[in-house]
Amino acid sequence: SHKLALDRDCMTLSRHVLKQFQDFSPEAQDLSALMSRIALAAKLIARRLTRAGLMDDALGFTGQTNVQGEAVKKMDVYANQVFISVFEQSGLVCRLASEEMEKPYHIPENCPIGRYTLLYDPIDGSSNLDVNINVGSIFAIRRQSDPDIDETGQDLLQSGRGQIAAGYVLYGPSTMLIYSIGTGVHAFTLDPTLGEFVLSNENIRVPEHGPIYSVNEGNFWQWDESIRDYIRYVHRHEGYTARYGGALVGDFHRILFQGGVFLYPGTVKKPEGKLRLLYESAPLAFLIEQAGGRASNGTQDILDVVPDQVHARTPLIIGSTEDVALVESFIRERQREQ
Ligand code: P6P
């Protein structure tokens, strides 16, 4: 039967990556192996999340604060360590840069120049953890092109155009892994009975326009007037609906599939906004452009922004081309008046 054939021939992640290449070049093999390691990390984190409420030391805070000054959750530490352990054994990655670590973690024994760096946010949306609402992991892979002289990752201060792969894991009712290596955006769903991520959506295209706007309106009076103008517009016009889950990965995933726009603008106190460039906004910007959408900081494409430090923040407007352009038009309108 068709179902039987599908099971037998299910498209796994590593096979799908190889299929993107015409040849079996060293880079194809590398990327296929890298994505398999991401999948292993995702399965280890998904497993702990599923049982967190039944374990003594899985949820809650560690009592530490991270380089961001944010209270660290036990799951943040666990997930960060999972990525290090999984890639330490991979022989592919020589450095990991994470939201949870001040400086990148170096794996000295396999660190010839030209190897790969993994940039990641191990658990994004950790404020959802203790209430069993979806969280995610975000990742990007770059080739290490220059020596990291003082091991602070200064060579990573480049635009997002240098990413060779990017994606995220959504730990939701099902665990999904979405990735791109520059040949479109593809989604895989974890089949727990197989322990494999199986292709569920190939060549995802974000609609040119969508009904959803996703933003934390609690910050309304902290934004620039131009953003308030945009919100007044969508409040007044038919056909818009608000959806905000408090976790970037889930909010982005909804926009990728249904269209619309997610915004985390700067505020008067934090003009750079809250979201990080290198391991949150740039990977998602890579994906949205591959899916036919756009990502902007309000005046510039996210993928063209060059950070001044590894943990640089950026305002983020991301989603359907028409909706991102509409937000930018309100920003330009106000700039003309100044
Ligand atoms: P706020 C989660 O803490 C996070 O980093 C993103 O996942 C999310 O989009 C954002 O912060 C939510 O921030 O200020 O709306 O609670």
From TrEMBL:
<feature type="binding site">
    <location>
        <position position="124"/>
    </location>
    <ligand>
        <name>Mg(2+) 2</name>
    </ligand>
</feature>
<dbReference type="GO" id="GO:0006002">
    <property type="term" value="P:fructose 6-phosphate metabolic process"/>
</dbReference>
<keyword id="KW-0113">Calvin cycle</keyword>
<dbReference type="GO" id="GO:0030388">
    <property type="term" value="P:fructose 1,6-bisphosphate metabolic process"/>
</dbReference>
<dbReference type="InterPro" id="IPR033391">
    <property type="entry name" value="FBPase_N"/>
</dbReference>
<feature type="domain" description="Fructose-1-6-bisphosphatase class I N-terminal">
    <location>
        <begin position="11"/>
        <end position="202"/>
    </location>
</feature>
<dbReference type="GO" id="GO:0000287">
    <property type="term" value="F:magnesium ion binding"/>
</dbReference>
<keyword id="KW-0479">Metal-binding</keyword>
<feature type="domain" description="Fructose-1-6-bisphosphatase class 1 C-terminal">
    <location>
        <begin position="206"/>
        <end position="330"/>
    </location>
</feature>
<dbReference type="InterPro" id="IPR028343">
    <property type="entry name" value="FBPtase"/>
</dbReference>
<feature type="binding site">
    <location>
        <position position="99"/>
    </location>
    <ligand>
        <name>Mg(2+) 1</name>
    </ligand>
</feature>
<comment type="similarity">
    <text>Belongs to the FBPase class 1 family.</text>
</comment>
<feature type="binding site">
    <location>
        <position position="121"/>
    </location>
    <ligand>
        <name>Mg(2+) 1</name>
    </ligand>
</feature>
<dbReference type="GO" id="GO:0005829">
    <property type="term" value="C:cytosol"/>
</dbReference>
<keyword id="KW-0963">Cytoplasm</keyword>
<feature type="binding site">
    <location>
        <position position="274"/>
    </location>
    <ligand>
        <name>substrate</name>
    </ligand>
</feature>
<dbReference type="InterPro" id="IPR020548">
    <property type="entry name" value="Fructose_bisphosphatase_AS"/>
</dbReference>
<feature type="binding site">
    <location>
        <begin position="124"/>
        <end position="127"/>
    </location>
    <ligand>
        <name>substrate</name>
    </ligand>
</feature>
<keyword id="KW-0119">Carbohydrate metabolism</keyword>
<protein>
    <recommendedName>
        <fullName>Fructose-1,6-bisphosphatase class 1</fullName>
        <ecNumber>3.1.3.11</ecNumber>
    </recommendedName>
</protein>
<dbReference type="GO" id="GO:0005986">
    <property type="term" value="P:sucrose biosynthetic process"/>
</dbReference>
<comment type="pathway">
    <text>Carbohydrate biosynthesis; Calvin cycle.</text>
</comment>
<dbReference type="GO" id="GO:0006000">
    <property type="term" value="P:fructose metabolic process"/>
</dbReference>
<keyword id="KW-0378">Hydrolase</keyword>
<dbReference type="Pfam" id="PF18913">
    <property type="entry name" value="FBPase_C"/>
</dbReference>
<dbReference type="GO" id="GO:0042132">
    <property type="term" value="F:fructose 1,6-bisphosphate 1-phosphatase activity"/>
</dbReference>
<dbReference type="GO" id="GO:0019253">
    <property type="term" value="P:reductive pentose-phosphate cycle"/>
</dbReference>
<dbReference type="InterPro" id="IPR000146">
    <property type="entry name" value="FBPase_class-1"/>
</dbReference>
<dbReference type="Pfam" id="PF00316">
    <property type="entry name" value="FBPase"/>
</dbReference>
<dbReference type="GO" id="GO:0006094">
    <property type="term" value="P:gluconeogenesis"/>
</dbReference>
<feature type="binding site">
    <location>
        <position position="280"/>
    </location>
    <ligand>
        <name>Mg(2+) 2</name>
    </ligand>
</feature>
<comment type="subunit">
    <text>Homotetramer.</text>
</comment>
<feature type="binding site">
    <location>
        <position position="216"/>
    </location>
    <ligand>
        <name>substrate</name>
    </ligand>
</feature>
<feature type="binding site">
    <location>
        <position position="121"/>
    </location>
    <ligand>
        <name>Mg(2+) 2</name>
    </ligand>
</feature>
<keyword id="KW-0460">Magnesium</keyword>
<feature type="binding site">
    <location>
        <position position="123"/>
    </location>
    <ligand>
        <name>Mg(2+) 1</name>
    </ligand>
</feature>
<dbReference type="InterPro" id="IPR044015">
    <property type="entry name" value="FBPase_C_dom"/>
</dbReference>
<feature type="binding site">
    <location>
        <position position="244"/>
    </location>
    <ligand>
        <name>substrate</name>
    </ligand>
</feature>
